[in-house]
Amino acid sequence: MNQIVVDxxxxxxxxxxxxxxxxMPRVAFAQAGEPARMNVIAFPxxxxxxxxxxxxxxTQTVAGKIYESLLTFDFDFxxxxxxxxxxxxxxxxxxxxxxxVRNAKWHDGKPFTADDVVFTTKEFLxxxxxxxxxxxxxxxxxxxxxxxxxxxxxxxxxxxFLMGFEMSTAPMIPAHLYRGTDFRTxxxxxxxxxxxxxxxxxxxxxxYIRLEKNPDYHGEGEPHLDEITFQILPDAGSRAxxxxxxxxxxxxxxxxxMFDVLRLADLPHxxxxxxxxxxxxxxxxxxxNTRVAPFNDKRFRQAVCHALDKQMMTDxxxxxxxxxxxxxxxxxxxxxxxxxxVYDYDLEKAKALLDEMGLTPDxxxxxTRVSFLRLxxxxxxxxxxxxxxxxxxxxxxxxxxxxADPASWTSRYANWEFQMTSNYxxxxxxxxxxxxxxxxxxxxxxxxxxSNCTGYSNPRVDELFEQGAxxxxxxxxxxxxxxxxxxxxxxxxxxxxxxxxxxxxxxxRYEDVVVxxxxxxxxxxxxxxxx
Length: 531
Hints:
With 531 residues, the chain is an alpha+beta fold. The chain has 15 helices and 21 strands. The protein has helices at residues 17-23, 57-63, 114-128, 130-136, 175-178, 236-244, 258-265, 298-307, 310-316, 347-357, 379-393, 406-414, 431-434, 459-470, 474-491, and strands spanning 37-41, 71-73, 79-81, 84-89, 95-100, 139-146, 149-154, 198-204, 208-213, 227-231, 250-251, 270-273, 283-288, 322-324, 368-373, 397-402, 420-423, 494-500, 504-507, 510-511, 528-529. Helix 11 links the parallel strand 15 (368-373) and strand 16 (397-402). Helix 3 packs across helix 4, helix 8 runs antiparallel to helix 10 (347-357) and helix 14 runs antiparallel to helix 15 (474-491). The longest helix has 18 residues, at 474-491. It is globular and about 75 Å long.
């Protein structure tokens, strides 16, 4: 992982003001014997805390302390115990047996058992969770061998199966509250009941979400914090000031605008890490709707790629927090291959491709006009859209930027009502989990966001992604994914631009916060105030 080093501070290796202050419950560096509290930014406000139905980024950050899955993952993706204390995989890669912790309880006091795992993976997730459905559809059987043992038998090998037991992919859901109900309207959706180290205490909508310590948590002596309060601060300036003044102790993802990150990281009470995002490994990109002209011609898409200066975008939009991308699979995750067609910044090559298409300039130098649906997650993406507009103008492509709020952007994206848009979805540690969904023909599903919304279809790509998912050796998987990367970078249904290093800004008085590949979305069972 590429670490950003700032002078006069230690980089983590593991990991009006009066009005704003009045909004925040008191969080202090308490005297000995007082409760240990932590304030964290939540931006935007989560639509729900029920991670089973919504995997929005801010939902994951808060709900990751309430819900758990069977496993978590080291920075190198090695699986570690969660609600499973151990597991076995058969030699043929078809049978997975999990031994569950024996003292876990739901927040309402009921015991967590193998029946909850079977219900979650066989019923609940198969109905409501598109990504998990694709994982557990590989199972021939899912059964409880006893109260604390679960066995999954696959129809055929699925190499990243263990990776599917990450919190946002397979959050465990209480069977006694959900079995036999309408999952989407169950009243418990508004009162989350998990097994995690923290429980929902209070949600003052628009202001804060307060979690309190779960006294019955199964981790011995954990958690170490008594309370975590997530501050909802819609204004970017207020979020930066809150970090600067020590009123919040953590910001993550794009909470703070990129131009403020290094300034804040240089403060004596703030540390910066880019670790803890390995599981997500986002690649900032432009997605093209390949159904509509001129994007249905790969020469146009290639011309766009040549017209965008990826190094400049890395430096000026993301302020060096990342590196130029070469293709769909991030170097930060598994099975990346850099031996692919690379689109150097070359305006003449771009113009030549447009000439070849017959898109010649008019009297004003305009060859064609296109629209860009702007991603609505902060000023970073507004600048991103402006850079795209200015860059394409140099080759005679006039761009109209279309603004959208989060709901309308998601709807238009899901329903293919765009010509091009920006995006940076997560890769979830394996191409079979987070990458293939955007390119396989079977996932062209209108109305489903973060699926194959570009409309790209290539039978060989479908075949290679299937081979990569089912191969039993890393060598076989790499061979399939290397070929698929070569094909995709030739066809460019997307322009892959920057492998983003999300920043986490953390108060130096806290430790053991970023401890895994899912970073700030972890349980925080180990997080503590430094003594």
